[in-house]
Amino acid sequence: MVFEIRNKVALITGGAKGLGYNFAKALLSKGLKGVTLVDINENDGILAEKELNEIYGNDKALFVKCDITNYAEFEEAFQRTIKKFHQLDILANNAGVGFDGIWRKEIDVNIIGTINGFILGMDHYLNKYKSTNEGVIIATSSTAGLGGYAPWPVYSATKFAITGMVKSWGCQFHYQRTGVRVVEVCPCAIATDLLNTDAFSLSPLYEGSMETIKNEVEQVQKPEHVAGEMVKMVEDAPNGSIWVVEAGEPAFEFSLPKREIFKKE
Ligand SMILES: NC(=O)c1ccc[n+]([C@@H]2O[C@H](COP(=O)([O-])OP(=O)(O)OC[C@H]3O[C@@H](n4cnc5c(N)ncnc54)[C@H](O)[C@@H]3O)[C@@H](O)[C@H]2O)c1
Ligand SMILES: CCCCC[C@H](O)/C=C/[C@H]1C=CC(=O)[C@@H]1CCCCCCC(=O)O
């Protein structure tokens, strides 16, 4: 059965701009009741809240300034969501940073921040405050989380970690105890500010590594496109499933093989 977006409430990390902001718009266009934009960037967050309330109607959007690596601060964002909207059905663990010139921060935000979101979402808020029998967590990884990536080994590792979270929290055991479905989106390059960084490489030794990937990342896609595909995943992607979105094309499902198939007879 398709999960109805209408009248649901979402919390989106990294919602002040880029993919998160576009995902908020895509959900609101489908009749979402309300959205909390959680972001460390106050200027863009306030602007985003104002813009969404102007387009979709007052009181649809709430911005909460928060660093997702801080569990207590992140929990406050959930509490403020419940206080304002009285329910929570969709969590997008979307905030992330790149690239490896800031690799310790990548680990903090992309791994610890995402784990905080899963614990708060699965075990404390979506399980209790979903308005129907099912809630959904969508986590933003990357195609760099499905295969090795020479230019940014640490970024890639943090995105592989998200795949581990989705495969684990996306097990039936957790669905049965919480009623929360878990899905992962793995986009290739998207035209957002993430790409405008001067923290590209871990060190000058990595110079030239971009040459190895030119073909794969040539077609930078629009955030609106990826956001639209994410809405479809929220509607009906199976629990624990992983979806690739690249080159502005429709999403396709990616599966990890069972290790038994590699066993020599
Ligand atoms: N842009 C791409 O090419 C691309 C490709 C694949 C995956 N992704 C992933 O998409 C997600 C969204 O990135 P984007 O491209 O929209 O980038 P973006 O920089 O436009 O947006 C990321 C948002 O996350 C917020 N953020 C960063 N650290 C935070 C923290 N500690 N707490 C709260 N918010 C924080 C930022 O302030 C920003 O608003 C990321 O997880 C990124 O890794 C991006
Ligand atoms: C000089 C050109 C620079 C281009 C940079 C490129 O746009 C970056 C894309 C990445 C940005 C964040 C990601 O997750 C994206 C990860 C893409 C991972 C691609 C890995 C290859 C693959 O898809 O298998």
TrEMBL record:
Its EC number is 1.1.1.141, 1.1.1.232. Keywords: Oxidoreductase. Pfam families: adh_short (PF00106). It catalyses: resolvin D2 + NAD(+) = 16-oxoresolvin D2 + NADH + H(+); (11R)-hydroxy-(5Z,8Z,12E,14Z)-eicosatetraenoate + NAD(+) = 11-oxo-(5Z,8Z,12E,14Z)-eicosatetraenoate + NADH + H(+); lipoxin A4 + NAD(+) = 15-oxo-(5S,6R)-dihydroxy-(7E,9E,11Z,13E)-eicosatetraenoate + NADH + H(+); 14-hydroxy-(4Z,7Z,10Z,12E,16Z,19Z)-docosahexaenoate + NAD(+) = 14-oxo-(4Z,7Z,10Z,12E,16Z,19Z)-docosahexaenoate + NADH + H(+). GO terms for molecular function: 15-hydroxyicosatetraenoate dehydrogenase activity; 15-hydroxyprostaglandin dehydrogenase (NAD+) activity. Gene3D superfamilies: NAD(P)-binding Rossmann-like Domain. Catalyzes the NAD-dependent dehydrogenation (oxidation) of a broad array of hydroxylated polyunsaturated fatty acids (mainly eicosanoids and docosanoids, including prostaglandins, lipoxins and resolvins), yielding their corresponding keto (oxo) metabolites. Decreases the levels of the pro-proliferative prostaglandins such as prostaglandin E2 (whose activity is increased in cancer because of an increase in the expression of cyclooxygenase 2) and generates oxo-fatty acid products that can profoundly influence cell function by abrogating pro-inflammatory cytokine expression. Belongs to the short-chain dehydrogenases/reductases (SDR) family. This is 15-hydroxyprostaglandin dehydrogenase [NAD(+)].
